[in-house]
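Could you help me review a protein record that somebody else here produced? This is what I was given.
***
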Amino acid sequence: MKTFKPTTPARRGMTKIDFSLLTKKDPEKSLLKYVKRNVGRSASTGRITTRHKGGGVKRMYRIIEFSQTRIDSPAKVTALEYDPNRTAFIALIQYKDGIKQYIIAPQNLKVGQEIVFAETAPLTEGNRIKLKNIPVGTNVYNIELEAGKGGKIVRSAGSAAQVLAHDEGFINLKMPSSEIRRFSGECFATIGMVSNPENRFYRLGKAGLSRMKGRRPHVRGSAMNPVDHPHGGGEGRQPIGLKHPKTPWGKPALGVKTRNRKKWSSKLIISRRKK
């Protein structure tokens, strides 16, 4: 992490990620895509459906290979880059036929290193292997929920799941949330831990950086009038006056379960996360 001398009130508490390890190059143009932002508005009605979003610095989307389209074809890491759309760093890989792809970079990946996507391969960070061929105790990330559908979970900076057991074609993984869950052994996962683990210590330091990220100000409900929020009203600073907090529309918030009890994947959860 980079820290700063307290030359201004913003600098006093600011910490930033050290990008000196990344390759100094422009993003790969063939792997960039413009994504229109609706800044919290519904694409169909144009009404605000997600509050406190808007503005922000324009950015291009990097097309990431979350799946394994080229099996048993080694690729060389040519660059480590910053991605404004995610907390993890990304790596640019190139195959022998010249095809380039972006992948989520694992921790300790080096430029010039060779990686491979295969059913079985050496347990080297960055290699993508089927879960049934990964031994107990190994850290993995970018895991498929369904075989062949591409990595869906454990993709944020510094996260990793641990292989706990092999059981009748299923693999038990301990998720970053401490939940223990079963996966098909035919699902692919990448060896290692996601890069940029220091992201958890990142401190913006000032409201301006939050606006640059597209986050608009958030007003506390208890600071509003009763007509505007269930928490509002009262003389001076008052508690919310309710046993449990509510949303502005009166629905329960904070701590209430939202998962559908009839969801098909519930049968694959062995142990829920610790509260």
About this structure: DSSP finds two helices and 17 strands in the chain. The longest helix spans residues 207-212. The longest strand covers residues 75-81.
